[in-house]
Specification:
Structural class: alpha+beta
Largest sheet: 4 strands, antiparallel
Oligomer: single chain
Number of strands: 4
Strand order of the largest sheet: 2-1-3-4
Shape: rod-shaped
CATH topology of one domain: Ribulose 1,5 Bisphosphate Carboxylase/Oxygenase
Radius of gyration: 63 Å
CATH architecture of one domain: 2-Layer Sandwich
CATH class of one domain: Alpha Beta
Number of helices: 7
């Protein structure tokens, strides 16, 4: 075990500074020192190449926790002089009937970087440290890139799915519009045919009425009293026409035909009234 009194003034100042800056070691020592089953305390240096043993304490009779703390810092400070930069140390306390030792990690400043030597510290700012940093940064960048790509891919997939749904909906609506257009065209064609049929029938009726009106005076003159008796039939026919029937006939005649029809209708009505008067007098 190292003697705390053999420390140089610089090391003593460093010990006081380290004790004030890192109280974890003091709490840990006071916690394990009160165990009556404490067997030994070991100090290890955690370098980048692996852990290395520094010192072991097995006798604690007559010693106080503060002395143990100073011994740990003293040994760690002497060991750190062989390295540059902050060094990591692990203190282990082995207690009887405990499967795993209790441990605490603390750091001690080594030599300044200007006083570098051939030893390698636990956290060296050299090519290994830079490589580790670059690897971490590269891993983080790749992870972010993969996450971004995944999110973009998922978003594009959702957009494509919505686009396909919209296109399908638009196609269904378009087909319905085409069906409606064809139906309207068919109905319009049927209406055109119906109008043409009505117009043809009207022309036929007008032609028949025109021919009948042209022949009607001859028939009246031919079948006057003394004739074969067709005039009474024609008179009764004209007399039986209702106003709606007369209006329908007049609607299918032109101006000249309407005049002739009114003239014939008047003659036949007068003839019918004369026949009724004669029958009433007899």
């Amino acid at each position: 075990m190292s003697d705390p009194t053999s420390a140089s003034p610089n090391n003593s100042a460093a010990l006081v500074s380290n004790l004030k800056a890192d109280p974890r070691l003091a709490r840990w020592v006071r916690g394990v020192f009160h165990s009556s089953a404490l067997e030994r305390v070991e100090l290890h240096h955690g370098g980048s190449a692996g852990s290395s043993h520094v010192e072991t304490w097995t006798s604690f009779e007559g010693r106080t926790p503060d002395q143990i703390i100073r011994d740990l810092y003293q040994s760690a400070s002497e060991d750190a002089e062989a390295f540059h930069g902050p060094q990591k140390y692990v203190a282990l306390a082995f207690v009887q009937n405990q499967r795993a030792p209790s441990r605490v990690i603390f750091r001690v400043d080594g030599q300044p970087w200007e006083q570098s030597d051939d030893f390698e510290g636990s956290e060296p700012p050299n090519s290994k440290g830079l490589t580790s940093q670059l690897m971490r940064h590269t891993e983080g960048a790749v992870r972010l890139a993969l996450m971004s790509s995944r999110q973009m891919t998922e978003m594009m997939a959702r957009n494509l799915e919505r686009q396909a749904q919209r296109e399908e909906s638009f196609m269904e609506k378009h087909l319905k519009v085409l069906e409606l257009h064809e139906s309207l065209l068919h109905k319009g064609h049927e209406r055109d045919i119906e109008r043409e049929d009505k117009a043809s029938m009207r022309q036929i009726k007008m032609g028949i009425a025109s021919q009948g009106m042209q022949l009607l005076p001859s028939l009246i003159a031919k079948f006057m009293p003394g004739g074969s008796g067709a005039l009474p039939l024609l008179t009764n026919l004209v007399g039986s026409l209702s106003e709606d029937q007369i209006g329908t006939i007049m609607a299918n005649l032109n101006d000249s035909q309407r005049g002739q029809f009114l003239e014939v209708y008047t003659i036949l009505r007068e003839q019918q009234e004369a026949m009724k008067a004669k029958e009433g007098g007899g």
